[in-house]
TrEMBL record:
Residues of the PafC HTH domain: 5-127
Domain WYL: 146-210
Top-rank taxon, per record: Bacteria
Residues of the WCX domain: 240-311
PROSITE patterns, alphabetized: WYL (PS52050)
Pfam (any one): WYL
Name of the protein in question: WYL domain-containing protein
InterPro entries: CBASS_pafABC_assoc_protein (IPR051534), PafC-like (IPR028349), PafC_HTH (IPR043839), WCX_dom (IPR057727), WYL_dom (IPR026881)
Length: 317
């Protein structure tokens, strides 16, 4: 083994041993696909390695150490002293919990159908935190069953068939090659190649019904189809609505504001325009930004939002 290869091997071996309380020489040799004697030689070298202390001399606590009786008599490797590794910054229990929750969220997305790497990282975060992370879980939702079928479709490389309620209230059967799942606030969207439209389309998961994993192979996958950065693509049929919005909240509407839209700012509010496929979508958009965004024109847009808000308020009387 060349010097460079030997160094790379040692740099891989040390964290492998640190992650395990006890491991046999045979198991380590099988993992790294080397001879058992090479593992024994490497462990003996690790045991005389370390970082010099403040006096620039090596004391016993400055060196790695192993349980020598176990090593010599039982061919078992147990690190009893770790150098420098323990001095490195660690995530707090709260930080590790937040990261683990994020990883659980990622594991639910269909593009992460092979979740072994995520599971491994979650385990490392749990072991490497400064304290035991809190038990956390991502709350389930009504769309979980659909997400599970999308994952199954991607893993099997086959199309997904479902009935979709369009923006105009019409229902159509679609065959789709799932490409990506994204969320905005509480809403989930599937972006995929629609075989009916022969183009990329975006589908809201709560408008999907009767999803079925088919046996028909996908003809498009994420590597083949460039997806735009924005979730919503303009359409000639879009409705343009003028709104006032707090300047700090304007970036939240970036996907809805058309290119070249006129913009004016006064007293911390911005007047601009957004495009929506129908007024029902506009109602949901404005409702998600109470007190932050106001519809200015056209009059029918203001009326649609005001009527919807009044009907909602009436339910609380």
């Amino acid at each position: 083994m060349q010097a460079g290869d030997k160094l790379t091997f040692l740099l891989s071996l040390v964290p492998y041993l640190i992650e395990r309380d006890r491991v046999s020489v045979t198991e380590v040799a099988e993992h790294f696909k080397v001879a058992p004697q090479q593992i024994r030689d490497a462990v003996s070298l690790i045991a005389v390695s370390g970082v010099p202390g403040e006096t620039t001399t090596y004391q016993s606590e400055d060196l790695f150490d192993i349980a020598w009786d176990d090593f010599l008599d039982n061919d078992q490797i147990v690190l009893t002293n770790q150098v420098a590794i323990d001095d490195s910054p660690r995530f707090s229990a709260r930080e590790a919990s937040a990261l683990i929750a994020g990883l659980q969220y990622l594991s639910a997305l269909p593009e992460n159908a092979d979740r072994s790497a995520i599971a491994s990282l979650t385990s490392k975060l749990s072991r490497g935190a400064s304290a035991v992370p809190s038990q956390v879980a991502v709350e389930g939702s009504e769309t979980d069953a659909t997400l599970a079928l999308i994952r199954e479709s991607v893993a099997a490389g086959v199309q997904l068939r479902f009935d979709y309620l369009g923006s105009r209230g019409q229902s159509e059967s679609r065959n789709v090659d799932p490409l990506r799942v994204e969320s905005i606030d509480a809403d989930w969207y599937l972006r995929g190649w629609c075989h009916l439209r022969e183009a990329v389309r975006t589908f809201r998961l709560d408008r999907i019904s009767n999803p079925v994993v088919t046996s028909e192979p996908m003809s498009h996958n994420p590597a083949d189809v460039p997806l735009p950065d924005t979730l919503f693509e303009p359409s000639p049929d879009d409705l343009v609505v003028t709104i006032d919005v707090a300047s700090a909240a304007e970036p939240l509407l970036a996907d809805y504001i058309p290119d070249g839209a006129q913009r004016s700012e006064r007293d911390g509010r911005v007047r601009t325009s957004v495009r929506v496929s129908h007024y029902h979508g506009l109602k949901r958009l404005i409702a998600s930004m109470p007190g932050v965004a106001t519809v200015i024109e056209p009059a029918e847009a203001r009326e649609a939002v005001a009527r919807w808000a009044a009907e909602g308020a009436a339910r609380y009387r």
